[in-house]
Amino acid sequence: xxxxxxxxxxxxxxxxxxxxxxxxxxxxxxxxxxxxxxxxxxxxxxxxxxxxxxxxxxxxxxxxxxxxxxxxxxxxxxxxxxxxxxxxxxxxxxxxxxxxxxxxxxxxxxxxxxxxxxxxxxxxxxxxxxxxxxxxxxxxxxxxxxxxxxxxxxxxxxxxxxxxxxxxxxxxxxxxxxxxxxxxxxxxxxxxxxxxxxxxxxxxxxxxxxxxxxxxxxxxxxxxxxxxxxxxxxxxxxxxxxxxxxxxxxxxxxxxxxxxxxxxxxxxxxxxxxxxxxxxxxxxxxxxxxxxxxxxxxxxxxxxxxxxxxxxxxxxxxxxxxxxxxxxxxxxxxxxxxxxxxxxxxxxxxxxxxxxxxxxxxxxxxxxxxxxxxx
Length: 375
Prior knowledge:
Shape: globular
Helix content: over 70%
Order of helices and strands: HHHHHHHHHHHHHHHHH
Structural class: mainly alpha
CATH topology of the largest domain: ABC transporter involved in vitamin B12 uptake, BtuC
Number of strands: 0
CATH architecture of the largest domain: Orthogonal Bundle
CATH class of the largest domain: Mainly Alpha
Radius of gyration: 23 Å
C-alpha cells in the first residue's frame, strides 16, 4: 500500500493515467460510432511502428512541436501563457526562408546564419510581447493573438512577393542547398548514391522517403539546456520565483519586469529555432501561403501541458503528439475513420491532465486511512 501511495503522488503517474483515460474515451466514441476500437488502435500502431519510414516521419513531425512545447513550458514557469508561439514560429520561418534564399554561402556559414536569423526574429517577436506585458501591463494572450495574425498575413505577403514567390505554386522559393541540414541530401541524388540505394531497399526507403535531419538531436539538447537554466542557475530561480508569486518575488528584490522580458525573449528564440530547423531540414525547404494557422505553436501548448511544463517531459509528450497525428492518417486511409478522432483523443488527454490533481488527493486519503488502520 505504501508503495502504491508513493507511485500515485508522482506527477508522471497522473500524466500516464490521463493518457490512458484519454485513449479509453476515444475508444468509447469509436465504438458508439460503429467502428472497432481494437482494429482502430491496431491500425494506428501499425501506422506508427510497422515501417522504419513511419518511425522517422513521426520524429520529423514531432521535432518542431517538441521545441515549441519547450518554449511554452519555459514561459509557463514565469506565469506567462505564450499563446503567441504560433506567430513566433511563423515569423521565424519567414525570416529563415528569406535569409536562406538571399544568401549563398558555404554551408559552414549558411546554416548558422539561417539558425541565427530564425532565432533573432523569434527573440524580437517574443520580446515585444514581454515588453508590452512588463512595461504597460498588456496581457500576453491579447498581444500574442494579435501578433499571430500579423505573422500570418506577413507570411502570405512574402510568399506572394516577386522576390520570393515560386511561379505557378502556392509557396516561396526554396533556400539555397548550402543551407540544407537534411542528412546525405547530396549523396542520395548522386550516381553513387542512387546505385547503392537500388541495392538496399530498407535504406532506400529511409533516405528517399523521409527528410532525416539532426533536428531531434538539437531539440533534446535545447530541452537539457532549458532544464539546466531553470533549475541550476540564478536566472532560472528568479524566473520560477516570479512564476510562483510575482509580488513575493518583487518583495525579495527580484526584478519581475526584467524576468518577464527575459522569459518571453528566450521563449521566442526557441520557437524561431524550431522554424529554422524545419526550413533547413525538411523538404521543400520553403514556406507556403497560409489559408489557416500551421498549428505548430498551438500544438506546443498541448505538448507543454501534457508534459506538465517539464522541458524534458516535452520530448516524450511531443513524440506522443506527433505519433498520434501521423498515425491518424492511417485511420482515415485504411478504415475511413475521421481524423477528428485524434483531436478528440488529445482533448480528452488534456481534460484528464487538468484533473491530475485528483490523483495526489486520492493518494493522501489512502495514506490517512492507512495511518488510522495502523493506530
